[in-house]
Design goal:
With 569 residues, the protein is an alpha+beta fold. The protein folds into two domains: 3-40 and 267-377 and 440-568, Glutamine Phosphoribosylpyrophosphate, subunit 1, domain 1; 63-83 and 115-263 and 391-421, no CATH class. The chain has 20 helices and 19 strands. The protein has helices at 3-17, 22-27, 51-62, 67-81, 119-124, 143-154, 159-172, 178-191, 197-201, 217-229, 231-235, 238-249, 256-260, 289-298, 311-331, 342-345, 348-355, 465-477, 483-488, 519-527; strands at residues 39-41, 45-48, 91-98, 103-109, 174-175, 213-214, 265-267, 270-274, 277-281, 378-385, 391-399, 445-449, 452-459, 492-495, 510-513, 532-534, 542-548, 553-558, 565-568. It has a seven-stranded antiparallel β-sheet. The chain has a seven-stranded antiparallel β-sheet with strand order 7-4-3-11-10-2-19. A hairpin with a 5-residue loop joins β10 (378-385) and β11. α14 (289-298) packs across α17. The chain is globular. The chain starts with a helix and ends with a strand. Residues 1-30 have low confidence and may be disordered.
C-alpha cells in the first residue's frame, strides 16, 4: 500500500469515528473519500493500472491511433511492467463501443482446456480438484489472439507500432513500481525452484526491488516475434512449439494442437436497466451477469432513503450477492457445454422472486440457487476513449499472482492457471472436460444512457469483481458520487458463497469492510446475524471513463489502491 493511500484511508477512518453521521457523509457525495481529482479531457482518455501503460496509450492516441489501438498498446505494456498480474500467457475480455455503428461489441478471448487431459486422468491422480498452480492448471492463453481480433475489426495503426512500447520496456528495462514489488518476493518463495522462474524474474537470484530497473530480454524477443509474424507466430509458430515441448517434459498437457486450434469469439453483450441506465456485461463463461442479477434485486429498494454505509445498505447488498452467487455456482460455465438460462437469470421477474427471499432483519445462512426456468485474483483492467467517440473496456489476467508458475523455455512469460477454476464434480455445469473454457472471473463493463455511451469501467479482484461493479454503480447512481469518489469509497466484500469450483455455502459466510464504515453499522449487522470484521487488505482496483455528452468531455478515474493513472489530452 502506498503512503498516500494509507493516510487517505486513515483520514476516512478518523472522519467516521469523529462523529460524522452516515447521513451527513452521504450528503457529501463521497468527497471525504476522494484521494484525487477527476481527470477531464476533450480529445481522448486512458485509465490503466500502471502509469507507463497509460502513457503508452496516450502516445498512440496522439499518433493517430484510436481507442482500440491504444488499449492494445497499454495492455502489452502492462504485461511487461506487471508480470504478476497479466501478460500474454493469460486471457482477455473486452467490450467496445464503436462510434461509427453506435453499437457495442463483446469479445471473449479466453482459452480452453487441453484436448489431451481428461477428468478421468485427473481423478486417477487422486485429485479432488485441479491444483492452483503447476502444469495441470494451465489452459490456452487467449490474450494475443484477442489483440489481433480487436485490431482486425477496429484497429488503425500497424500492430508492430502498437507493440513497440512493450518491446522497448522489456528490452531496456523499467522501474519496478510499488504493487509489483510487493508481490515479487512471494513469487520467488513459491516458484523459485521451478524451471526458468529465477532466470526470468529474479536474474542472479535477486528479486527486483521497488525503484530498481528490471529487464526481460526474452519477453522482448517474444513480443518482437509476434509484432513481425502476427498471431500465428504465437499459436502456430516456434512459440507454440516451444510451449508444447516444455509442457511435455514438465508433466503438462497443453499442446501445439490446443494452441493452433484456438479461436476467440465475438459475442453479444447482455444488459439490464438500473434506474434509467443500461448496464452491459458479457455472458458466461464469465461472471458478468452476476452484476445484472444483483442490480435487478437491489432496484426493488429505495436507496434515496437508505444512506451509504448504513446497516440497511450493507445488509441488502450482501443478501443480493448471496442469492446471485448461488446461481453463479450452479449455472455459470462454458455455454458450448452447458445450457445457461441467461435471459431468465437477468430478468426483472426472476429478480422479484429472488428478492422475496431477503429478510430485512436477518442474514441468510444457507441461500440456495433459484430455478429461473419456472476469491481474489490478479488482473489488470484498462479503458480508453478517443476523439472519434470510440471507447473500449478491456480486462486481462493470468489469474493468481504469477499464474501457474509455469515459464516455458526462453519465452519470458508465465502461463495462466485458469484451469484451476474447473470443478471435478461430475454433472456440474463447470465440470472439467477437454477443450472447454473454464469459469472465468474477469469481467469488463459498460453503461449506456438513452442509447449513448455513459461509462466504461471495470474492477479487478477475482470473485470480488461483481461486488465491485455493483458498488461502483450504486455509488454513482444511488449515492451521487463522481467517478473518482465512487472508486475511492470504502468497499464491502463477502466471502463464503458457493462457487463454480464445487465449494458449497454452509453458514452465511462473512463480511469484511475496508476502514470507513461506522461502528454502529457493524454492530447492527452482527445483530442481524452477519459475521463482520474490518479488512486487513484492500479490495479490487478500478479504472473508469465517463462521457459527458452535454459538454463532450471525458472524465477519467483511477483507483488509489493500485499504481494506476488516468490521463487525457
Amino acid at each position: 500500500m502506498t503512503i498516500k493511500l494509507l493516510f487517505a484511508l486513515i483520514g476516512v477512518f478518523l472522519l467516521r469515528i469523529s462523529g460524522c453521521s452516515v447521513q451527513a457523509q452521504d450528503r457529501l457525495s463521497g468527497r471525504a473519500f476522494a484521494t484525487r481529482s477527476v481527470v477531464m479531457a476533450r480529445h481522448g482518455m486512458a485509465c490503466t493500472a500502471h502509469p507507463l501503460a497509460t502513457q503508452a496509450a496516450i502516445e498512440v492516441l496522439r499518433s493517430g491511433g484510436n481507442a482500440i489501438d491504444a488499449a492494445i498498446a497499454a495492455n502489452a505494456v502492462e504485461g511487461v511492467v506487471e508480470p504478476n498480474m497479466n501478460g500474454i500467457g493469460g486471457d482477455l475480455f473486452a467490450i467496445v463501443w464503436d462510434a461509427k455503428s453506435q453499437k457495442l461489441y463483446g469479445l471473449n478471448a479466453s482459452g480452453r482446456s487441453p484436448y489431451g487431459l481428461t477428468s478421468a486422468q485427473l481423478k486417477a491422480q487422486n485429485l479432488t480438484r485441479i491444483p492452483l498452480n503447476g502444469p495441470l492448471s494451465v489452459s490456452v492463453p487467449g490474450c494475443v489472439d484477442g489483440w489481433f481480433e480487436l485490431h482486425k475489426r477496429f484497429g488503425k495503426l500497424p500492430m508492430n507500432r502498437l507493440l513497440t512500447p512493450a518491446i522497448e520496456y522489456a528490452r531496456d528495462g523499467f522501474p519496478v513500481h510499488d504493487e509489483t514489488a510487493d508481490s515479487w518476493p512471494d513469487m520467488l518463495r513459491k516458484f523459485g525452484t521451478w524451471p526458468n522462474v529465477r532466470e526470468t524474474y529474479a536474474p542472479g537470484g535477486v528479486v527486483p526491488a521497488r525503484g530498481t530497473v528490471f529487464k526481460n530480454p526474452a519477453l522482448s524477443k517474444t513480443l518482437e516475434t509476434i509484432a513481425k509474424g502476427g498471431r500465428d507466430a504465437f499459436y502456430k509458430g516456434n512459440i507454440a512449439r516451444t510451449i508444447d515441448a516444455f509442457m511435455k517434459k514438465t508433466g503438462g498437457y497443453l499442446s501445439y494442437r490446443d494452441l493452433s486450434e484456438h479461436t476467440s469469439d465475438w459475442i453479444e453483450p447482455v444488459s439490464t436497466t438500473y434506474r434509467g441506465h443500461t448496464i452491459w456485461e458479457l455472458p458466461p463463461n464469465g461472471q458478468g451477469i452476476a452484476v445484472l442479477q444483483m442490480l435487478n434485486i437491489l432496484e426493488g429498494y429505495d436507496f434515496s432513503k437508505i444512506p451509504w454505509g448504513s446497516p440497511e445498505h450493507v445488509h441488502l447488498f450482501t443478501e443480493a450477492k448471496k442469492l446471485a452467487f448461488e446461481d453463479r455456482a450452479r449455472f455459470y460455465a462454458d455455454p458450448a457445454f452447458a445450457t445457461i438460462p441467461v435471459n431468465e437469470l437477468i430478468s426483472k421477474a426472476y429478480a422479484a422472486e429472488r428478492r422475496k427471499r431477503i429478510d430485512p432483519e436477518r442474514a441468510s445462512l444457507k441461500p440456495e440457487a433459484g430455478n429461473p426456468l419456472l476469491k481474489n485474483g490478479d488482473t489488470i483492467y484498462l479503458t480508453v476513449a478517443d476523439s472519434e467517440g470510440n471507447m473500449v473496456s478491456l480486462i486481462q489476467s493470468i489469474f493468481l499472482q504469477f499464474g501457474s508458475g509455469v515459464v516455458p523455455d526462453g519465452l519470458g512469460f508465465v502461463l495462466q492457471n485458469r484451469g484451476a477454476l474447473f470443478t471435478l464434480k461430475d454433472g456440474e455445469a463447470n465440470a472439467y472436460a477437454p477443450h472447454k473454457r473454464p469459469f472465468h472471473t474477469i469481467i469488463p463493463s459498460f453503461v449506456t444512457k438513452d442509447g449513448k455511451p455513459w461509462l466504461s469501467f471495470g474492477v479487478m479482484g477475482g470473485s470480488f469483481q461483481p461486488l465491485g461493479h455493483v458498488q461502483i454503480l450504486m455509488n454513482l447512481i444511488d449515492f451521487g458520487m463522481n467517478i473518482q469518489e465512487a472508486g475511492d469509497a470504502p468497499r464491502i466484500d463477502h466471502q463464503g458463497s458457493s462457487e463454480p469450483t464445487g465449494d458449497v455455502a454452509l453458514d452465511g459466510g462473512f463480511i469484511t469492510l475496508e476502514s470507513g464504515f461506522p461502528y454502529e453499522t457493524i454492530r447492527e449487522l452482527m445483530r442481524k446475524g452477519h459475521k463482520v470484521s474490518y479488512s486487513y487488505g484492500l479490495y479490487g482496483g478500478y479504472q473508469a471513463i465517463q462521457y459527458d455528452s452535454v459538454h463532450q468531455i471525458y472524465h477519467g478515474a483511477s483507483d488509489a489502491r493500485k499504481d494506476g493513472q488516468a490521463a487525457g489530452y
